[in-house]
Amino acid sequence: MPEITDDLFAPAPKQDQQQKITRPSITYWQDAWRRLKKNKFAMAGFYFLIAITLMAIIGPYLQKSGYELQHLAARNEMPNGAYWFGTDEFGRDLWVRLWWGTRISLFIGIMAALMDLCIGVLYGGVSAYYGGKIDDIMQRFIEVVYSIPYLLITVLLIVMMGAGIWTIIFAYGITGWISMARLVRGQVLSLKEQEYVLAATSLGASSWRIITKHLIPNALSFIIIQITFTIPQAIFTEAFLSFLGLGVKVPLASLGMLLSDGVGSMRVYPWRLLFPALVFSLMMVSFNLLGDGLRDALDPKFRK
Amino acid sequence: MSRFILRRFFYMLITFWMIVTVTFVLMHNLPGDPFANSEKLSTQQRALLSKQYGLDRPILVQYEEYLLHIGQGDLGVSFAYPTRKVTDIIKESFPASAELGAESIIFSVLVGLILGITAALKHNKSWDYTAMFIAIVGVSIPSFVLGPILQYWVGVKWGILPAALWDGPANRILPALTLSFMTIAITARMMRTSMLDVLNADYIKTARSKGLSQFAIILRHTLRNAILPIVTVLGPITVNVITGTLVVEQIFAIPGLGKYFVQAVYSNDYTLIMGLTIFYSLLLIVVMFLTDIAYGFIDPRIRLAKGRN
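^ Those are the sequences you sent over. The predicted structure of the assembly is below.
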């Protein structure tokens, strides 16, 4: 029988080194950002949007003129040193009007996004989280509102309430948030069955905590993707209404209004259409590219 | 199935009733009254006119009558053309709009499907990028910019196709094309996503591992399953085409309903606007109803899920 000595009981050398994680762990959002950065198209869209937004903020101040100021001595000017994008038939500086219009269009888009967040997310979230009777009633209501043609109601409202930014936004508030509500409901319905929500419930977390700490963060990626499609849609609708003469009120400008003015005079003054069309299309393309890129980056289904 | 259809039909009625009510409420909350623009009218004349149009009665009575009239398919008389009924205007000008819409939908759904399928089969290759670029451009340029440009270059400068009016088959091409871009984009995107989903499914792997040719897999297994979700975008496509015709008919001077709608908006012809809104809404609601039913038939999971809750 071998002798049992103390040194047999010496602790084994620690093997920490092998298990150590050598790289810092990254969060979901850092991971998504990395994947988004690899998508050249989405990043191009992202930078274009930043550039356009910056121009919408500072653009008008690079020229002394206001968007409504008429330089009657300089009507129908071609783009030149004094008026970078020319002037219209009232002698208004088109550079200033273009960036003001961008600002108005972006504002409408952002307000639509806010509506989506406030009404759509809340409605969908409450409907799915509480479920049962509440969900039933809320879903019946959505099914009815869903078939109401948004644009026709908007036209109707504008005819009644008068044209203007707030009418467009109000009309969006009536029917525009439906797709967001449906999306959030679907997400929350599947999320609330997850084990971690059960764990949180059994640990005594309140509804509020579960909603804000577990459900919303996990549905956030889908909400963001939806918003990148809501904004261009709202801007597009405004442009469409402007063409019908139902957009913002003169002398205020919006991209849609500049576009429809530009279409009217494109045979004689093509640049009046060219510049707004460039900015508008670039903005739409950028939003769509960014939205597609975000979906690829955030939605696990699209991961390679 | 019949329970599912009945249920959907019931919702359809509620939706329609809601739209009718909303239009009625809006019409009665107008600032001023329909005769406010004619300043020369004396108070007496105004009272007489109000009586003639029944505007002096209690609102609930008016509402009841309004519902009754709509139930009988009577949308009232146009304010701007007092001799013409709204329903007559619809009967006369809807065929042109419907034809334009149908031609555009057929063309653009075909093109969209081809683009979407190509994009999915060549996923992440240059074909995919090209197809998706076309789709994105389609949703980025408003039809009221594209239309006049096509009209000017193709119609006026090159003189290849007629630039306006609605005389022969050649007149259809430019308006239908203008109207189609958005639909092409929607269809192509939907088809691409749906194809990619199906291509990753297990039954495609099974088909491949049992040695089927690529062609047979695509034709028999992938396409048949991937094309189903397209039915769901038919609703949004119809919305798009209807709102599109408002603009396109205006640009190409097509004697359709859209042109009337725009004119009615300009001239504040309330009854015509209301009537056309109700007509368009009904059209949309019916399309939505039919697509829902069609999808229920195609995909049993939908009707089972809906029947349960």
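The two ends of chain B are 14 Å apart (CA to CA). Chain B has a mean pLDDT of 80.

Shout if you want it in another format.
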